[in-house]
Design a protein that fits this description.
Blueprint: E1 3-7, H1 11-24, E2 29-34, H2 37-44, E3 51-55, E4 57-58, E5 61-62, H3 66-69, E6 76-80, E7 96-99, H4 104-117, H5 126-139, E8 147-152, E9 155-160, E10 164-170, E11 173-178, E12 183-186, H6 190-196, E13 202-204, E14 209-212, E15 216-221, E16 227-231, E17 239-240, H7 243-253
Parallel strand pairs: 1-2, 1-3, 3-6, 6-7
Antiparallel strand pairs: 4-5, 8-9, 10-11, 10-14, 11-12, 13-14, 15-16, 16-17
Length: about 260
């Protein structure tokens, strides 16, 4: 029986991951589901498992700090929402990664890879992983979008990212809104913009909006633990953080 530890700070995401794992292999044992660095460190000091599913961003910090506190020899499958530049490093030592939202086919392949590579358990060298990740990040530092080309009538102009307040989708178009309240259509989907924008400065709060941190004028408590945002410049469409994004959004604000 495969014993698994899940470390994920989004309750719904953790429950979904557990359900998908059980659908793939009904014989697994989910030993525990944790949501913090501190809790994971304490638990691993007292327990052993065969495989860990580890979210990178937890409620109380980056999960890599776990390895600074204790030695971990258990193979790990990392779970990440956007860390595309470090993701190649996770391939060392048979470590795999899953991008959120997790697809069942990808999950099945990751578990199958683990089973094939660990029929005869070998020590897992987490230090090699950390060194590989650091080298990868040094060699391929993130390069985010610096400006956007837009058209205004028969004119073409380039808007520096510093002048962008937020993006929103409406009908079949995606609009860029500048800090001086000018609106331009951009030839990108919101999904693609998530990859192009610096995640320290921009956050996708729902399916319709990606907002810049400096565009937040006020925030208000909304129903079901959501947050309603008053944007600057003012948006005609309500900017409300979705339920599944609320917890991560608050963590993003608290960095």
């Amino acid at each position: 029986m495969l014993r698994i530890l899940i470390v994920e700070d989004e309750h719904l995401a953790a429950r979904r991951l557990e359900r998908l794992i059980r659908e793939i292999d009904s014989q697994v044992e989910i030993c525990e589901t944790l949501d913090t660095v501190q809790g994971t460190v304490a638990w691993l000091q007292e327990h052993e498992v065969d495989l860990i599913f580890l979210d990178i961003h937890l409620a109380d910090g980056n999960s890599f700090s776990i390895f600074e506190k204790i030695d971990v020899s258990t193979p790990i499958i990392f779970v990440t929402a956007y860390d595309q530049y470090a993701v190649r490093a996770f391939k060392v030592n048979s470590v795999d990664y899953l991008l959120k939202p997790i697809e069942q086919e990808d999950l099945a392949q990751a578990i199958d890879k683990f089973k094939q590579n660990h029929t005869a358990p070998a020590p897992f060298d987490i230090s090699a992983l950390m060194q590989a990740m650091q080298s990868q990040q040094t060699a391929a530092a993130p390069v985010f979008q610096k400006r956007f080309m837009v058209t205004s009538g028969d004119k073409i102009k380039s808007i520096p990212i510093e002048e962008v307040a937020y993006f929103f989708g409406q009908q079949k178009y995606v609009f860029l809104v500048t800090k001086d309240n000018r609106r331009h259509i951009v030839d990108f989907t919101l999904g693609k913009l998530e990859e192009l924008l610096d995640p320290e400065q921009f956050y996708r709060i729902n399916r319709q909006f990606i907002i810049g941190y400096k565009s937040i004028s006020n925030m208000f408590a909304y129903s079901k633990s959501r947050v309603k945002i008053e944007l600057d410049p003012v948006s005609e469409i309500d900017a409300i953080v979705s339920i599944e994004k609320s917890k991560h959004f608050k963590n993003w604000l608290n960095r």
